[in-house]
Amino acid sequence: MSKSTITIALDAMGGDHGPAVVLAGAQTALERHPDMRFVLFGQEDAVRPVLDGLPKLRERSTFHHCDVSIRMDDKPSQALRQGRYKSSMWKAIEAVKTGEADVAVSAGNTGALMAMAKFCLRTMANIERPAIAAIWPTLRGESIVLDVGATIGADSQQLIDFSVMGAAMSRALFQIDRPTVGLLNIGVEEVKGQEDIREAGRLMKETPIDGLDYRGFVEGTDLGKGTVDVVVTEGFTGNIALKTAEGTARQIGSYLKAAMTRTWMAKLGYLLAKSAFDRLRDKMDPRKVNGGVFLGLNGVVIKSHGGSDAEGTAAAIDVAYAMAANGLLAKIESDLGRVYANEVSVPLEGEAAGSEEVAP
Amino acid sequence: MSKSTITIALDAMGGDHGPAVVLAGAQTALERHPDMRFVLFGQEDAVRPVLDGLPKLRERSTFHHCDVSIRMDDKPSQALRQGRYKSSMWKAIEAVKTGEADVAVSAGNTGALMAMAKFCLRTMANIERPAIAAIWPTLRGESIVLDVGATIGADSQQLIDFSVMGAAMSRALFQIDRPTVGLLNIGVEEVKGQEDIREAGRLMKETPIDGLDYRGFVEGTDLGKGTVDVVVTEGFTGNIALKTAEGTARQIGSYLKAAMTRTWMAKLGYLLAKSAFDRLRDKMDPRKVNGGVFLGLNGVVIKSHGGSDAEGTAAAIDVAYAMAANGLLAKIESDLGRVYANEVSVPLEGEAAGSEEVAP
């Protein structure tokens, strides 16, 4: 748990609904973690009036005015060109770099946020590419799935890095000592084209990694089952899987609504079972698991869903709080350090010891 | 519609439950299409007793004994080595080649079935790789998604081939004149690594293809919405998406069941709304959309789900019937012919006219 106050750098301008929703979410999160502090970044005329209406939040916040706000449809390169060093998004990330804050949260556009986070914080030693980790509701509880869209494609070493980082996040967020890890694959045998996944699996079997329990390949159906604590895949497939699951949940929600309003009997049944439906809605509520965690950078940045309401924003801030309070960054650094130290003494097949991937 | 009797070649030994379920499914399908005929392949001692108990089916069937049955866990290479020329699976496919049947159906293992279908029927002219097309239930009805796992990876020309074949299937199965087609992609701009998808999109925009309406990129959430009639992707992503959707549907089904049995009020509500729940179950019933269609071969083969019950098997046979009755193969051949004829006159960028891909 937290030893000192956790400070959240918050991009007040991010998201589809702007400061009113972002700050309301911050206030809700603050009620749950009263020791939390905020550094807020945004345009004064938009943020001040909202903040003045939320005295509890105002009391625990420092506000910095920023002229520039990144729009939801700005391209990453455009955002970086126009918003670097001065936008609310940049400033929130920079507060993590300078140590003013422990973690940054933004509901701004993912591409821009990732581009700025990479530019500002840089990737960790040994890590070539960061990943976005999602919290996935399952029949067993919650799993972590990464990468859900930071970059397309991943080689075997990157998949192993994702495994290590995902396991560290599982420990930090869910206090699981030795999380189980699976590589997302398809069930067809003797199939060509995914040598990287097979190679990553082979390496993790041959050289077990401290702090994670590698369980082999998992399939798309295992995501909802929660077969493993951490599911690892490259960003294209991970993004498609995440959005397919979201779409399927919404689709079934629509079917259910249509079915329950079709006849008077069904409507009556619905009323009697309302508390059950409320529980179900709660289970399926995407706001409960809001917060994509950027992993592999020298600082933790949380992406809140652009369309989030206050409750969703609060959930993302909760994740940020947990990540900071449980020392996610230090856990990842120490775990990666062990993996890469190990790699020097046990050279990978076909690779010389002291290869380029091993930091000096 | 069908001009003459449709004959289905059926691998009676495929699937987890064997001939009893496969043949019961065939009988159900026969009741819906009484003009249908079957050629059945399987082990006499297993099939005969079942067939004797289904006199209607027996009357419309020819049975051929096969010594060898492919097991669900046989590897494709193993299946091909041991089952070529003699297994019930092979014989069902071969019946399509010889013209004894119009289409083959098997619930045997996908890898083995695809390996045998490729070996026996060969790919169509211009087609390098076959695809498996799935029928995907959506809020608008049903879409076709391909490839869901025949092969991993696809270049731009293969994605275009999939688009043409998927559109032909949409016309044959759903009588949609000019199906809308989307390429599955992720929403992040300026992302590297999926040049093939971008290139395929660019080509379909620049040179519209007769008989399909290309609508650009779609995302994972569009699958359940039914944004387009045909969603095109390479086999790894398609398989993960399909299984993720199946898993999510099952997950929500479990939540719903748990919620509805938790309190007496909920149970009572459930009883009153039972017909609504039955409708919902019906909507979500994976058996209703059973049948993966192998496209791109010189003959149509339908893969029924290994775990299907009789109703699921019947659904796969319904799909087979529709594909044959509506001349899917001829539609694909003529559409591909037009596309490749077109390509000669409009050479692809960076490719000489009369490149290798253009058949003489």
TrEMBL record, chains A, B:
<dbReference type="GO" id="GO:0043811">
    <property type="term" value="F:phosphate:acyl-[acyl carrier protein] acyltransferase activity"/>
</dbReference>
<comment type="pathway">
    <text>Lipid metabolism; phospholipid metabolism.</text>
</comment>
<dbReference type="Pfam" id="PF02504">
    <property type="entry name" value="FA_synthesis"/>
</dbReference>
<keyword id="KW-0443">Lipid metabolism</keyword>
<dbReference type="GO" id="GO:0008654">
    <property type="term" value="P:phospholipid biosynthetic process"/>
</dbReference>
<dbReference type="InterPro" id="IPR003664">
    <property type="entry name" value="FA_synthesis"/>
</dbReference>
<keyword id="KW-0963">Cytoplasm</keyword>
<dbReference type="InterPro" id="IPR012281">
    <property type="entry name" value="Phospholipid_synth_PlsX-like"/>
</dbReference>
<keyword id="KW-0808">Transferase</keyword>
<comment type="similarity">
    <text>Belongs to the PlsX family.</text>
</comment>
<keyword id="KW-0444">Lipid biosynthesis</keyword>
<protein>
    <recommendedName>
        <fullName>Phosphate acyltransferase</fullName>
        <ecNumber>2.3.1.274</ecNumber>
    </recommendedName>
</protein>
<comment type="subunit">
    <text>Homodimer. Probably interacts with PlsY.</text>
</comment>
<keyword id="KW-0012">Acyltransferase</keyword>
<keyword id="KW-0594">Phospholipid biosynthesis</keyword>
<dbReference type="GO" id="GO:0005737">
    <property type="term" value="C:cytoplasm"/>
</dbReference>
<dbReference type="GO" id="GO:0006633">
    <property type="term" value="P:fatty acid biosynthetic process"/>
</dbReference>
<comment type="function">
    <text>Catalyzes the reversible formation of acyl-phosphate (acyl-PO(4)) from acyl-[acyl-carrier-protein] (acyl-ACP). This enzyme utilizes acyl-ACP as fatty acyl donor, but not acyl-CoA.</text>
</comment>
<keyword id="KW-1208">Phospholipid metabolism</keyword>
